[in-house]
Write a structure and sequence with these properties.
This protein is an alpha+beta fold and 148 residues long. It has one domain (28-145): Lipocalin (Beta Barrel), CATH 2.40.128. It has two helices and eight strands. It has an eight-stranded antiparallel beta barrel with strand order 1-2-3-4-5-6-7-8. Strand 6 and strand 7 (114-122) form a beta hairpin. The longest helix has 17 residues, at 7-23. It is globular and about 40 Å long. It comes from Singulisphaera acidiphila (strain ATCC BAA-1392 / DSM 18658 / VKM B-2454 / MOB10). This is TIGR03067 domain-containing protein. Keywords: Signal. Residues 1-20 form the signal peptide.
Length: 148
């Protein structure tokens, strides 16, 4: 086969492939991509699975009584924030369609498969340190990459 016959196809598709690669999240947001698991709640007895694709977040899980839930929203990171990087969980809606208040937090990339987060709680102030509060807020979470 003559390779020159493929030149027009390459000319058409190469820019599209490069553009798709440029759209991939960079920096810390790129490290947040994928499936994660954690436990939440004052007693850490709610299992939570989190899927992050781009800025979109889908979190699903079940309460100790077996009641399932799913919420969707977006993640915003500020990796330049000092002294600690910040995360905002925004535009979240539950199965009922109601929007939840933004949840502001801190994050630390522990390693490629572990992220430590401290959330202030929906509608509450951003925490200033990685520490659980007495009433469940702020709340420290450890996300582990789900390799299943």
């Amino acid at each position: 086969m003559n390779a020159s016959r493929f030149a027009p196809l390459v000319a058409v598709f190469l820019p599209l492939l490069v553009a798709a690669a440029d759209d991939a999240p960079q920096g810390d947001l790129g490290k947040f991509q994928g499936k994660w698991k954690t436990t939440i709640g004052p007693e850490k007895n709610f299992t939570l699975s989190i899927l992050i694709k781009g800025k979109a977040v889908t979190a699903s899980g079940s309460a100790p009584d077996g009641q399932g839930f799913e919420i969707k929203g977006e993640i915003k990171l500020d990796e330049t924030a000092k002294p600690v990087k910040t995360v905002d969980w925004v535009k979240f809606t539950g199965p009922d369609g109601n929007e939840a208040p933004d949840n502001k937090g801190l994050y630390e990339l522990v390693d490629a498969d572990t992220i430590k987060i401290c959330n202030g709680g929906p509608g509450k102030d951003r925490p200033t340190e990685f520490k659980d509060g007495d009433d469940g807020h702020p709340s420290v979470l450890v996300l582990k990459r789900d390799k299943d």
